[in-house]
Amino acid sequence: MFDWVIVGAGFAGATLAERIATERDEKVLVIDRRPHIGGNAYDRYNEDGLLVHQYGPHIFHTNSQMIFDHLSKFTEWRKYEHRVLGKVDGMEVPIPINLDTVNMLYGLNLTSEELPAWFASKAEKVEEIKTSEDVVVSVVGRELYEKFFQGYTRKQWGMDPSELDKSVTARVPTRTNRDDRYFTDEFQYMPLHGYTRMFETMLDHPNIKVMTQTDYQDIRNEVSFKRLIWTGPVDEYFGFRHGKLPYRSLKFRHETLDVEQALPTGTVNYPQTEDYTRISEYKHMTGQVHPKTAITYEYPSAEGDPYYPIPRPENAELYKKYERLAMATPNVWFVGRLATYRYYNMDQVTGQALATFRRIQEALPVGGDV
Ligand code: FAD
Ligand code: UDP
Predict the structure, then answer these.
(1) Is 13 within a domain?
(2) Tens of pLDDT along 47-94?
(3) Which atom in ligand 1 lies closest to the alpha carbon of residue 215?
(4) How many Å from the N-terminal Cα to the C-terminal Cα in the chain?
(5) Which range of residues forms the domain containing residue 120?
(6) pLDDT tens sequence across 139-156
(7) Cα 295 to ligand 2 centre (Å)
(8) What are the tens digits of pLDDT across the range 225-247?
(9) Strand locations in the chain (E)
(10) Are residues 236 and 319 in the same domain?
């Protein structure tokens, strides 16, 4: 007999399991259909002893002191600021586009003071910024948009940026200074001993039982429980009754190379060439010292595990139908990137899970009536 079953052992599920077990002293069963905890943030040591991220590079960054403090209960941290280069016109230039990117690509010697006027001379006027094309061409113009965004986005999403919500490419800013960090958040760290270790610590509680390689369908009639937290795809929970919500997937190619370092930065993007979008090298992130190095290629794919909700108007409409069903389902909470169909980073999922816990506390005071 469990008070709660939590479906999914990623950031959403593990954060809620820990809070419920610790603060409510209730019994929680966490299940995941995969053979491990951590969801998409799962990392592991490969056969050569190199720490790799099974589902592509995961870099933690947040501006929230509260979220950082919460996760700090379960891990120590290693300071890491991610940098990305793009292979563009045969050169390796900084992404996000900054002063050096423009000067390198165009053989110019502009200053930070001159660059805004240069961008303005290239920018296209867009009446209302709606799409992922609008948001870029209105700032840097069509040429840089095509070089950096159009090809990459077509590969990554299987559609043109004009078909995607502006929020997708708006994740990547444009800079007039020389800051070449991918993120500018206040807190940028990697868990010192990896994500999986952090999740093990989070889930290590006498009130929590974890079962991996266990699908919800396998246990729903076998286990007795009062309440459910669902962090899988929301359309799956409702038997796809309104149709399938589109999710984008990836295939990962993991390689170990017999060199100490393979890439100049943690990630190199390929906006113009190759079938893959980017290559990442984990030693930059983990700080591991090792004679070999591990890298991962990401190949976008329509089939496979659901990794990315696809932000565009018709999908938002379809999601709303599922959201209405979710809201009308008592004793089930929907949390996380797949269950709320939001293109959330790890810190945002953690924040959403903590907010859900506060709502649970209000709705179900400990010791109150069911
Ligand atoms: P998930 O991690 O997807 O966990 C859901 C779990 O539920 C899965 O393990 C799944 O197996 C399980 N599940 C689903 N259905 C069932 C079922 N029926 N029965 C049992 N189990 C089920 N975020 C960042 O902040 N920084 C980054 O650098 C970053 N890089 C990323 C790179 C890639 C390639 C991807 C795909 C994502 C990246 N993210 C990054 C986003 C990050 O992965 C997510 O924000 C986070 O992992 C979402 O956590 P979650 O718990 O919502 O979902
Ligand atoms: N993007 C791009 N070129 C790049 C980097 C990003 O066109 O060199 C676009 C692309 O559409 C991508 C989105 O911006 O999906 C968000 O990029 P981010 O690096 O945040 O993607 P994620 O790490 O979530 O896959």
Answers:
(1) yes
(2) 999 999 999 999 999 999 999 999 999 999 999 999 999 999 999 999
(3) 19
(4) 15
(5) 84-171
(6) 999 999 999 999 999 999
(7) 19
(8) 999 999 999 999 999 999 999 99
(9) 2-7, 28-31, 43-45, 51-53, 60-62, 77-79, 84-88, 91-95, 187-191, 208-211, 225-230, 247-257, 267-269, 278-281, 293-301, 308-309, 332-334
(10) yes
pLDDT at position 369 is 53
- Residues 20 and 151 grouped into a single domain: no
> Considering the domain boundaries, does residue 125 fall inside one?
yes
Together in a domain, 353 and 211? yes
Q: Decide whether any atom of ligand 1 lies within 6 Å of the 349 Cβ.
A: yes
Residues with CB under 6 A from ligand 2: 86, 95, 148-149, 152-153, 156, 168-169, 171-172, 269, 271
Ligand 2 probe mutation, 172, 276, 278, 343, most atoms within 8 A of CB: 172
Decide: 189 in ligand 1 pocket, CB within 6 A. no
φ, ψ of residue 367 to 5 degrees: the values are 85, -5
Tell whether 141 and 198 lie within a shared domain. Answer: no
Domain count, the chain: 2
Which residue CA neighbors atom 27 of ligand 1 most closely? 58
Contact of 258 with 292, CB cutoff 8 Å: yes
The pLDDT value given to residue 366: 85
The ligand that comes nearest to the alpha carbon of residue 348 is 1
Looking up residue 316, the CATH number of its domain turns out to be 3.40.50.720
